[in-house]
Amino acid sequence: MPELIVRSLGQQPYLETWEAMKSFTAERGDDTNDELWCLEHPRVYTQGQAGKAEHILAPGDITVIQVDRGGQVTYHGPGQLVIYLMIGLTRRKIGVRGLVDIIEQGIVRTLAELDIAAEPRPDAPGVYVGDAKIASLGLRVRRGCSFHGLALNVDMDMEPFGRINPCGYAGLAMCQTSDFTSASIDAVEQLLVAQLVSGLGDSVVSYRNGWDDQAGPSI
Question: Which sequence positions are flagged as catalytic?
Fold first, then answer.
């Protein structure tokens, strides 16, 4: 199995990152390294393939982008940890449900390390603290490979969630790790990456800040 590459990318524009994910997936071969892209986005709403226009209540000055992941509308913004999982599922013999389980349990274990009790729900992908949603999932699989991924609310302006029905649920309460702990987004990223690497079973991992000339697209 080729080594897993984990990239810490800071804040990246949404559209360019989405195009990079699609290009990476379209061009990858049997020996291409799997990658995790860890980043934040500027303020943007993304509407998944199952999304309905009526769940976007009052977007105001925030752009709405129709995307090819599963799920419905969600919000991304600074202070939210986004991790995109560019994983060869066929090569790893992992199904989509298996990858969802790895992601959800990785988030649950990460939050437990921060003394936050959380759990997934069988009827709706994502992770919840009580009745409030703290992390969202949205994936796409093409040619046996995944892209898109997870968004964990860490320390962000939560007001834009009030302008939509998050994930298609009217009145869904949202929360973030800063409601419970002072852990920085960098600290949360390190914890969650470790849990995802463990869940994927990788023993050879390369950690990189930003893009490089050897692998991954340049955006």
Answer: 167
